[in-house]
Amino acid sequence: MSQKTSAPISRRQFITGAAAAVASVTIAPGVFLMRPADAGTAEGVRWGLLIDSNRCGDCNACVTACHEENGVRGMDRPRTDAQWIRKVELRDPDTGHSHSLPVMCQHCEHPPCEDVCPTGASFRRADGIVLVNKHTCIGCRYCMLACPYKARSFIHETLTDQAAHAPRGKGTVESCTLCVHRIDRGERTTACVEACHDKGNGAMLFGDLNDPDSAISRELAEHGGTAIRADLGLNPGVRYQGI
Amino acid sequence: MLRGNFSGRTAWRWLMLGALPLLFLAGCGGSVEPPPMMEARGDQCVEPLDVIRKDHGKLLMHERDDAVIRAVRNPDHSFVGCIDCHVATEARHTQPETHFCASCHSFNAVRMDCFECHRDRPEAEHLHTLNPHAPGVDFAWAPNHRGLAASLAEVDLLPPPEAPKP
Question: Could you tell me which residue, A157 or B32, shows the higher pLDDT?
Fold first, then answer.
Protein backbone atom coordinates (compact mmCIF):
# COMPACT_ATOMS: atom_id res chain seq x y z
CA MET A 1 0.00 0.00 0.00
CA SER A 2 1.49 3.27 -0.98
CA GLN A 3 0.30 6.29 0.77
CA LYS A 4 0.30 9.44 -1.27
CA THR A 5 1.76 12.38 0.55
CA SER A 6 1.23 15.92 -0.56
CA ALA A 7 3.68 18.64 0.33
CA PRO A 8 2.27 20.45 3.35
CA ILE A 9 2.68 24.21 3.26
CA SER A 10 3.29 25.85 6.59
CA ARG A 11 1.86 29.15 7.64
CA ARG A 12 5.27 30.76 7.40
CA GLN A 13 5.88 29.38 3.90
CA PHE A 14 2.51 30.66 2.78
CA ILE A 15 3.15 34.13 4.12
CA THR A 16 6.72 34.44 2.82
CA GLY A 17 5.61 33.03 -0.52
CA ALA A 18 2.87 35.61 -0.83
CA ALA A 19 5.26 38.38 0.23
CA ALA A 20 7.83 37.27 -2.31
CA ALA A 21 5.26 37.37 -5.08
CA VAL A 22 4.42 41.04 -4.53
CA ALA A 23 7.67 42.43 -3.17
CA SER A 24 10.11 41.64 -5.91
CA VAL A 25 11.71 45.06 -6.10
CA THR A 26 14.63 45.85 -8.32
CA ILE A 27 17.08 48.13 -6.52
CA ALA A 28 19.78 48.09 -9.18
CA PRO A 29 20.20 46.39 -12.54
CA GLY A 30 20.32 42.71 -11.79
CA VAL A 31 20.01 43.15 -8.04
CA PHE A 32 16.68 42.52 -6.40
CA LEU A 33 15.55 43.51 -2.94
CA MET A 34 13.58 40.33 -2.77
CA ARG A 35 13.03 37.96 -5.61
CA PRO A 36 10.42 35.26 -5.92
CA ALA A 37 12.02 32.13 -4.56
CA ASP A 38 12.55 29.11 -6.74
CA ALA A 39 9.66 26.73 -6.80
CA GLY A 40 11.34 24.28 -4.43
CA THR A 41 10.58 20.60 -4.61
CA ALA A 42 8.38 19.57 -7.51
CA GLU A 43 4.73 19.17 -6.57
CA GLY A 44 3.37 15.66 -6.06
CA VAL A 45 6.54 13.97 -7.23
CA ARG A 46 8.26 10.96 -5.77
CA TRP A 47 11.67 10.27 -7.20
CA GLY A 48 12.82 6.69 -7.38
CA LEU A 49 15.15 4.22 -9.04
CA LEU A 50 14.51 0.92 -10.76
CA ILE A 51 17.44 -1.49 -10.97
CA ASP A 52 17.38 -4.54 -13.20
CA SER A 53 19.86 -6.92 -11.62
CA ASN A 54 19.77 -9.20 -14.70
CA ARG A 55 21.32 -6.44 -16.75
CA CYS A 56 23.70 -5.33 -14.03
CA GLY A 57 27.19 -6.33 -15.07
CA ASP A 58 30.39 -7.03 -13.24
CA CYS A 59 31.52 -3.44 -13.42
CA ASN A 60 31.73 -0.80 -10.72
CA ALA A 61 30.76 2.12 -12.94
CA CYS A 62 27.87 3.35 -10.79
CA VAL A 63 29.96 3.33 -7.62
CA THR A 64 32.85 5.15 -9.25
CA ALA A 65 30.58 7.71 -10.88
CA CYS A 66 28.67 8.40 -7.66
CA HIS A 67 31.77 8.90 -5.59
CA GLU A 68 33.38 11.05 -8.21
CA GLU A 69 30.27 13.18 -8.63
CA ASN A 70 29.92 13.81 -4.91
CA GLY A 71 33.60 14.08 -4.04
CA VAL A 72 33.59 10.93 -1.89
CA ARG A 73 37.17 9.75 -1.59
CA GLY A 74 38.42 6.89 0.52
CA MET A 75 41.19 7.19 3.07
CA ASP A 76 42.27 3.66 2.23
CA ARG A 77 40.57 2.44 5.39
CA PRO A 78 37.77 0.14 4.20
CA ARG A 79 36.22 -0.28 7.63
CA THR A 80 35.49 3.42 8.04
CA ASP A 81 35.55 4.85 4.53
CA ALA A 82 32.29 6.42 3.41
CA GLN A 83 30.30 4.62 0.74
CA TRP A 84 27.16 6.06 -0.75
CA ILE A 85 26.58 3.10 -3.03
CA ARG A 86 28.04 -0.38 -3.07
CA LYS A 87 27.86 -3.49 -5.19
CA VAL A 88 26.38 -6.55 -3.46
CA GLU A 89 27.03 -10.06 -4.78
CA LEU A 90 24.14 -12.51 -4.61
CA ARG A 91 24.71 -16.23 -5.11
CA ASP A 92 22.12 -18.94 -5.11
CA PRO A 93 23.82 -21.92 -3.41
CA ASP A 94 21.47 -24.42 -5.10
CA THR A 95 22.06 -23.40 -8.69
CA GLY A 96 25.34 -21.58 -8.32
CA HIS A 97 23.86 -18.66 -10.20
CA SER A 98 25.35 -15.40 -9.04
CA HIS A 99 24.67 -11.80 -9.92
CA SER A 100 25.44 -8.44 -8.43
CA LEU A 101 23.44 -5.31 -7.88
CA PRO A 102 24.05 -1.84 -6.52
CA VAL A 103 22.59 -0.93 -3.12
CA MET A 104 22.33 2.61 -1.87
CA CYS A 105 19.93 4.59 0.32
CA GLN A 106 16.52 3.20 -0.61
CA HIS A 107 14.72 6.50 0.02
CA CYS A 108 11.94 4.90 2.04
CA GLU A 109 8.50 6.40 2.36
CA HIS A 110 8.69 5.62 6.09
CA PRO A 111 12.39 5.98 6.78
CA PRO A 112 13.54 4.46 10.10
CA CYS A 113 16.51 6.86 10.08
CA GLU A 114 14.08 9.75 10.29
CA ASP A 115 12.18 8.08 13.15
CA VAL A 116 15.22 7.66 15.35
CA CYS A 117 17.02 10.94 14.64
CA PRO A 118 17.08 12.95 17.89
CA THR A 119 17.58 16.32 16.19
CA GLY A 120 15.40 15.95 13.10
CA ALA A 121 18.49 16.14 10.92
CA SER A 122 17.50 12.97 9.12
CA PHE A 123 14.47 13.87 7.05
CA ARG A 124 12.47 13.09 3.95
CA ARG A 125 11.93 15.83 1.42
CA ALA A 126 8.48 16.38 -0.04
CA ASP A 127 9.65 14.75 -3.29
CA GLY A 128 10.62 11.56 -1.48
CA ILE A 129 14.39 12.04 -1.18
CA VAL A 130 15.77 11.08 2.24
CA LEU A 131 18.60 13.38 3.28
CA VAL A 132 20.76 14.36 6.23
CA ASN A 133 20.62 18.02 7.21
CA LYS A 134 24.24 18.36 8.23
CA HIS A 135 23.57 21.72 9.85
CA THR A 136 21.72 19.89 12.62
CA CYS A 137 23.32 16.41 12.52
CA ILE A 138 25.19 15.74 15.76
CA GLY A 139 26.84 12.55 14.57
CA CYS A 140 25.14 10.20 17.04
CA ARG A 141 24.82 7.50 14.35
CA TYR A 142 21.41 6.20 15.52
CA CYS A 143 20.29 6.37 11.89
CA MET A 144 23.12 4.09 10.86
CA LEU A 145 21.90 1.50 13.35
CA ALA A 146 18.28 1.91 12.35
CA CYS A 147 18.80 1.61 8.60
CA PRO A 148 18.12 -1.97 7.50
CA TYR A 149 20.06 -1.37 4.26
CA LYS A 150 23.32 -0.19 5.87
CA ALA A 151 23.13 2.76 3.57
CA ARG A 152 24.69 5.40 5.75
CA SER A 153 28.28 6.29 6.52
CA PHE A 154 29.87 8.38 9.21
CA ILE A 155 32.76 10.69 8.46
CA HIS A 156 35.55 10.08 10.93
CA GLU A 157 38.21 12.40 9.64
CA THR A 158 38.64 16.01 8.64
CA LEU A 159 37.91 16.44 4.96
CA THR A 160 39.16 18.96 2.45
CA ASP A 161 38.43 19.51 -1.21
CA GLN A 162 34.74 18.63 -1.08
CA ALA A 163 32.50 19.09 -4.10
CA ALA A 164 30.83 22.50 -3.97
CA HIS A 165 27.36 21.00 -4.40
CA ALA A 166 27.91 18.20 -1.85
CA PRO A 167 29.11 19.57 1.49
CA ARG A 168 30.44 16.79 3.73
CA GLY A 169 32.40 17.00 6.92
CA LYS A 170 33.77 15.24 9.95
CA GLY A 171 31.24 14.27 12.60
CA THR A 172 28.21 13.97 10.36
CA VAL A 173 26.42 11.05 8.75
CA GLU A 174 25.80 10.91 5.04
CA SER A 175 24.31 8.72 2.35
CA CYS A 176 23.08 8.72 -1.22
CA THR A 177 21.27 11.98 -1.97
CA LEU A 178 19.74 10.72 -5.22
CA CYS A 179 21.96 13.43 -6.77
CA VAL A 180 19.69 16.07 -5.29
CA HIS A 181 21.83 18.87 -6.72
CA ARG A 182 21.07 17.60 -10.22
CA ILE A 183 17.37 17.27 -9.53
CA ASP A 184 17.24 20.80 -8.12
CA ARG A 185 19.01 22.04 -11.24
CA GLY A 186 16.24 20.45 -13.28
CA GLU A 187 18.18 17.44 -14.53
CA ARG A 188 16.29 14.19 -14.51
CA THR A 189 19.06 11.67 -14.05
CA THR A 190 21.64 10.70 -11.44
CA ALA A 191 25.37 10.04 -11.72
CA CYS A 192 24.94 6.28 -11.25
CA VAL A 193 22.14 5.98 -13.80
CA GLU A 194 24.12 8.01 -16.30
CA ALA A 195 27.25 5.89 -15.79
CA CYS A 196 25.27 2.64 -16.14
CA HIS A 197 23.72 3.93 -19.33
CA ASP A 198 27.06 5.07 -20.73
CA LYS A 199 28.53 1.66 -19.95
CA GLY A 200 25.86 0.12 -22.16
CA ASN A 201 24.21 -1.90 -19.40
CA GLY A 202 21.19 0.32 -18.93
CA ALA A 203 20.33 -1.52 -15.73
CA MET A 204 19.23 1.58 -13.84
CA LEU A 205 16.29 3.86 -14.42
CA PHE A 206 15.49 7.11 -12.66
CA GLY A 207 12.08 8.71 -12.61
CA ASP A 208 8.92 9.85 -10.90
CA LEU A 209 7.10 6.96 -9.23
CA ASN A 210 3.94 9.04 -8.83
CA ASP A 211 3.63 9.80 -12.53
CA PRO A 212 1.95 6.83 -14.25
CA ASP A 213 3.35 7.92 -17.62
CA SER A 214 7.01 8.06 -16.58
CA ALA A 215 9.33 5.38 -17.95
CA ILE A 216 9.98 3.96 -14.50
CA SER A 217 6.26 3.67 -13.66
CA ARG A 218 5.44 2.05 -17.00
CA GLU A 219 8.28 -0.45 -16.58
CA LEU A 220 7.10 -1.23 -13.05
CA ALA A 221 3.50 -1.62 -14.22
CA GLU A 222 4.55 -3.92 -17.03
CA HIS A 223 7.22 -6.10 -15.44
CA GLY A 224 6.88 -5.39 -11.74
CA GLY A 225 9.61 -4.78 -9.25
CA THR A 226 10.44 -5.78 -5.73
CA ALA A 227 11.79 -3.91 -2.77
CA ILE A 228 14.61 -5.27 -0.64
CA ARG A 229 13.16 -6.29 2.73
CA ALA A 230 9.64 -5.50 1.56
CA ASP A 231 8.46 -7.22 4.76
CA LEU A 232 9.50 -4.17 6.75
CA GLY A 233 6.81 -2.10 5.07
CA LEU A 234 9.07 0.89 4.49
CA ASN A 235 7.98 1.29 0.86
CA PRO A 236 11.40 2.21 -0.52
CA GLY A 237 11.74 4.38 -3.60
CA VAL A 238 14.42 2.09 -5.02
CA ARG A 239 13.00 -1.01 -6.68
CA TYR A 240 14.73 -4.07 -8.10
CA GLN A 241 13.98 -6.57 -10.82
CA GLY A 242 15.40 -10.07 -11.01
CA ILE A 243 16.16 -10.67 -7.36
CA MET B 1 53.56 62.04 59.84
CA LEU B 2 51.01 59.27 59.65
CA ARG B 3 48.82 61.29 57.40
CA GLY B 4 51.61 62.23 55.03
CA ASN B 5 52.70 58.63 54.90
CA PHE B 6 49.19 57.52 54.09
CA SER B 7 48.68 60.04 51.33
CA GLY B 8 51.99 59.11 49.79
CA ARG B 9 50.99 55.48 49.68
CA THR B 10 47.61 56.39 48.22
CA ALA B 11 49.21 58.46 45.52
CA TRP B 12 51.53 55.58 44.64
CA ARG B 13 48.57 53.24 44.57
CA TRP B 14 46.71 55.59 42.24
CA LEU B 15 49.69 55.74 40.00
CA MET B 16 49.94 51.94 39.84
CA LEU B 17 46.23 51.27 39.40
CA GLY B 18 45.20 54.17 37.22
CA ALA B 19 47.88 56.18 35.63
CA LEU B 20 50.30 53.46 34.53
CA PRO B 21 47.71 51.40 32.67
CA LEU B 22 46.44 54.59 31.12
CA LEU B 23 49.96 55.30 29.95
CA PHE B 24 50.12 51.85 28.39
CA LEU B 25 46.76 52.39 26.73
CA ALA B 26 47.91 55.74 25.45
CA GLY B 27 50.74 53.90 23.75
CA CYS B 28 48.17 51.81 21.91
CA GLY B 29 46.57 54.88 20.38
CA GLY B 30 46.03 55.04 16.65
CA SER B 31 44.09 52.81 14.36
CA VAL B 32 44.13 49.04 14.13
CA GLU B 33 45.14 47.66 10.78
CA PRO B 34 42.02 46.14 9.19
CA PRO B 35 42.41 42.78 7.50
CA PRO B 36 43.05 42.93 3.79
CA MET B 37 39.73 42.53 1.96
CA MET B 38 40.32 40.78 -1.30
CA GLU B 39 38.65 42.16 -4.37
CA ALA B 40 35.65 40.27 -5.65
CA ARG B 41 34.89 39.23 -9.17
CA GLY B 42 32.00 40.96 -10.82
CA ASP B 43 31.23 44.60 -10.21
CA GLN B 44 28.53 44.49 -7.57
CA CYS B 45 27.61 42.53 -4.49
CA VAL B 46 24.18 40.93 -4.25
CA GLU B 47 23.25 43.33 -1.43
CA PRO B 48 24.38 46.84 -0.46
CA LEU B 49 27.75 46.70 1.28
CA ASP B 50 26.54 47.79 4.71
CA VAL B 51 23.79 45.16 4.63
CA ILE B 52 25.97 42.32 3.48
CA ARG B 53 28.78 43.18 5.89
CA LYS B 54 26.51 43.16 8.89
CA ASP B 55 23.95 40.54 7.98
CA HIS B 56 25.58 37.98 5.69
CA GLY B 57 25.60 35.50 8.54
CA LYS B 58 21.90 35.98 9.19
CA LEU B 59 21.03 35.65 5.50
CA LEU B 60 22.94 32.40 5.16
CA MET B 61 21.70 31.03 8.46
CA HIS B 62 18.01 31.76 7.88
CA GLU B 63 17.81 30.62 4.30
CA ARG B 64 19.80 27.43 4.68
CA ASP B 65 16.85 25.41 5.98
CA ASP B 66 14.71 26.49 3.05
CA ALA B 67 17.46 25.37 0.71
CA VAL B 68 18.20 22.03 2.36
CA ILE B 69 14.70 20.97 3.35
CA ARG B 70 12.42 22.59 0.78
CA ALA B 71 14.88 23.08 -2.10
CA VAL B 72 13.93 26.76 -2.16
CA ARG B 73 17.12 28.47 -3.19
CA ASN B 74 17.68 32.18 -3.49
CA PRO B 75 20.50 32.51 -6.02
CA ASP B 76 21.37 35.93 -4.56
CA HIS B 77 22.09 34.43 -1.16
CA SER B 78 23.75 31.24 -2.28
CA PHE B 79 26.72 30.13 -0.21
CA VAL B 80 28.43 28.80 -3.32
CA GLY B 81 27.71 32.12 -5.01
CA CYS B 82 29.59 34.01 -2.28
CA ILE B 83 32.57 31.68 -2.63
CA ASP B 84 32.57 31.86 -6.42
CA CYS B 85 32.80 35.64 -6.42
CA HIS B 86 34.97 36.32 -3.40
CA VAL B 87 37.44 33.50 -2.95
CA ALA B 88 40.40 32.75 -5.17
CA THR B 89 40.70 29.22 -6.48
CA GLU B 90 44.05 28.77 -4.72
CA ALA B 91 42.85 30.12 -1.33
CA ARG B 92 42.50 27.92 1.76
CA HIS B 93 40.40 28.74 4.80
CA THR B 94 43.18 27.33 6.96
CA GLN B 95 45.40 30.15 5.70
CA PRO B 96 43.32 33.21 6.58
CA GLU B 97 45.60 35.63 4.79
CA THR B 98 44.62 34.01 1.48
CA HIS B 99 40.90 33.58 2.13
CA PHE B 100 38.27 36.31 1.93
CA CYS B 101 35.97 34.91 4.64
CA ALA B 102 38.66 33.56 6.94
CA SER B 103 40.74 36.74 6.94
CA CYS B 104 37.90 38.82 8.36
CA HIS B 105 36.64 36.07 10.66
CA SER B 106 40.05 35.55 12.21
CA PHE B 107 40.54 39.32 12.57
CA ASN B 108 37.24 39.56 14.44
CA ALA B 109 37.88 36.37 16.42
CA VAL B 110 34.78 34.71 14.97
CA ARG B 111 35.03 31.01 14.42
CA MET B 112 32.53 29.61 11.96
CA ASP B 113 32.28 25.95 10.99
CA CYS B 114 31.05 26.49 7.42
CA PHE B 115 34.21 25.19 5.84
CA GLU B 116 34.31 22.02 7.89
CA CYS B 117 31.80 20.75 5.34
CA HIS B 118 31.48 23.34 2.57
CA ARG B 119 34.13 23.70 -0.08
CA ASP B 120 36.19 26.76 0.78
CA ARG B 121 37.04 27.83 -2.78
CA PRO B 122 35.36 27.86 -6.17
CA GLU B 123 35.24 24.77 -8.28
CA ALA B 124 36.59 25.81 -11.64
CA GLU B 125 33.95 24.00 -13.65
CA HIS B 126 31.12 25.28 -11.50
CA LEU B 127 32.40 28.82 -11.26
CA HIS B 128 29.51 31.26 -11.40
CA THR B 129 26.94 28.76 -12.54
CA LEU B 130 24.80 29.49 -9.51
CA ASN B 131 25.27 33.25 -9.51
CA PRO B 132 22.98 34.81 -12.09
CA HIS B 133 24.74 38.16 -11.90
CA ALA B 134 28.25 36.99 -12.51
CA PRO B 135 29.83 36.34 -15.88
CA GLY B 136 30.09 32.81 -17.15
CA VAL B 137 33.04 30.46 -17.03
CA ASP B 138 34.64 31.51 -20.31
CA PHE B 139 34.41 35.19 -19.56
CA ALA B 140 37.77 36.92 -19.92
CA TRP B 141 38.43 38.92 -16.79
CA ALA B 142 39.48 42.49 -17.38
CA PRO B 143 41.83 43.85 -14.73
CA ASN B 144 40.00 46.00 -12.25
CA HIS B 145 41.80 49.33 -12.23
CA ARG B 146 39.31 51.10 -10.02
CA GLY B 147 40.36 49.45 -6.82
CA LEU B 148 38.53 48.80 -3.60
CA ALA B 149 38.71 52.43 -2.42
CA ALA B 150 36.78 53.64 -5.47
CA SER B 151 34.16 50.92 -5.02
CA LEU B 152 33.71 51.84 -1.37
CA ALA B 153 33.48 55.53 -2.24
CA GLU B 154 30.63 54.72 -4.59
CA VAL B 155 28.48 53.61 -1.68
CA ASP B 156 29.57 56.50 0.55
CA LEU B 157 31.73 54.40 2.80
CA LEU B 158 34.89 56.30 1.89
CA PRO B 159 35.61 59.79 0.58
CA PRO B 160 36.07 59.71 -3.19
CA PRO B 161 39.67 59.20 -4.27
CA GLU B 162 41.37 62.29 -5.62
CA ALA B 163 41.10 62.63 -9.33
CA PRO B 164 44.44 62.43 -11.14
CA LYS B 165 45.65 65.89 -12.08
CA PRO B 166 45.84 66.63 -15.76
Answer: A157
Q: Residue B44: which of A31, A131, A159 has the nearest Cβ?
A: A31
**Residue B112 belongs to a domain:** yes
Q: Do B122 and A164 touch (CB under 8 A)?
A: yes
In eight-state DSSP terms, residue A234 is: -
Closest by CA to A152, choosing from A134, A132, A175, is A175
Question: Which of B85, B83, B81 shows the shortest CA–CA distance to B67?
Answer: B81
Q: How many CB atoms lie within 10 A of CB A125?
A: 22
Alpha-carbon gap, residue A76 to A73, rounded angstroms: 9
Q: Please tell me which residue of chain B has the smallest CA distance to A186.
A: B71
Top pLDDT among A160 and A9 is at A160
The helix (run of H) or strand (run of E) holding residue A85 is: strand A85-91
Residue B75, pLDDT score: 83
Chain A / chain B CB contacts < 8 angstroms: 73
Residue B135 touches partner A, C-beta closer than 8 Å: no
Instruction: Residue A17: give the domain boundaries.
Output: 7-37
Interface predicted TM-score (ipTM): 0.79
Alpha carbon of A71: minimum distance to chain B alpha carbons (Å): 10
DSSP string spanning A182-211?
Answer: HHHHT----HHHHHHHHHT---EEEEETT-
Residue B40 confidence class, pLDDT cut points 50, 70, 90: confident
The DSSP secondary structure of B121-147, one letter per residue, reads S--GGGTTSS-TTS--TTPPPPP--SH
Residue B165 lies in a domain: no
Say how many domains are in chain A. Answer: 2
Distance from CA of A26 to the nearest CA of B (A): 11
Mean pLDDT of all residues in A97-121: 95
